[in-house]
Structure formats: C-alpha cells, structure tokens
Design a protein that fits this description.
single chain, about 150 residues, alpha+beta, 5 helices
C-alpha cells in the first residue's frame, strides 16, 4: 500500500475505510530506516530505505504535524503512526522490521533488538479485524544482535 493510499484512508473518519486500511496494512511487511520523527501530537515515524534518503530528508526539514497529512516525498517509503513505546525508543537511523500479517515489529538499535507493536490500532478496529500482536511480557528488549 503506498503512502498516498495510507494518507487518503487515514484522513477520512469512515469506519469502513479504517477497516480496509488496517486489513491491508497489517498484511504488509517492511524493513526500513527511521528517517524522521514527527514531534507533534501524533507519534509519526517516517521510514526510508537508505541512509542517503535520511540525509535528503534532513536537508528538506519536513513539517511537524499529522504523519498522514504529509505531502508526497520520494524519500519517504512509509509513514507509520507508531505506538508510544516504539516512537519513544526509535531514533533516526534505527532500523524497523515489520513482520507480515500482524502488528509485530523489531527495532534494531546499536547492538540490541527490541520487540514492539508497530501501530496504534483503534478499539473499534480491534473488535472487527483480528490482529496478531506481541503479548505485554514480550515487549521491549529481545536480544543482542549476533556479532559478525
């Protein structure tokens, strides 16, 4: 699902569109770098493929605000409305790997790997769409990265 499709569906306050968005978005998987953190009231993480994309984004000084109201920037591969825990612990340059068919993701920081649920999912969606997530006791530090 493209960033524009995500933007379109998340801006509308229609439950049917929300269900469509979560059913399709939850199935996607990605392995991307945190390139920009929205410090506004939303916990938005903008994700890109390469360190060069991150440098391009730093030069452009993207706006603060709703992560789903960003203009189309070619350097941004995905806009994630992250959980508070993921947002607070992710830093620009960290890698996020989202597993397919659920809300589970790994955050790779320095020499460690952490487990987080990726996105904020509204209660009305949870009642309609079955979403696989980490259990509370599985969240946070997972293990050290294997040394090369």
């Amino acid at each position: 699902m493209s960033v524009i499709t995500v933007l379109k569906y998340c801006n509308e306050k229609n439950t049917e569109n929300d269900i469509f968005y979560y059913k399709n978005n939850i199935q996607e998987e990605f392995d991307l770098l945190v390139s920009f953190k929205n410090t506004g009231r939303q916990w938005g993480l903008y994700l890109s493929k390469t360190k060069k994309d991150i440098d391009n984004i730093k030069e452009k000084k993207y706006p603060i605000g709703d992560p789903y109201k960003i203009p189309k920037y070619p350097d941004i591969e995905f806009a994630l409305k992250a959980t508070q825990a993921l947002f607070e612990n992710a830093r620009v340059g960290d890698r996020i790997q989202k597993l397919p068919n659920g809300n589970k993701c790994y955050l790779y920081k320095n020499d460690s790997i952490f487990r987080y649920n990726c996105s904020i999912i509204p209660e009305k969606i949870r009642k309609t769409v079955e979403i696989e997530e980490w259990d509370q006791e599985e969240l946070g530090f997972y293990k050290l990265k294997p040394s090369n």
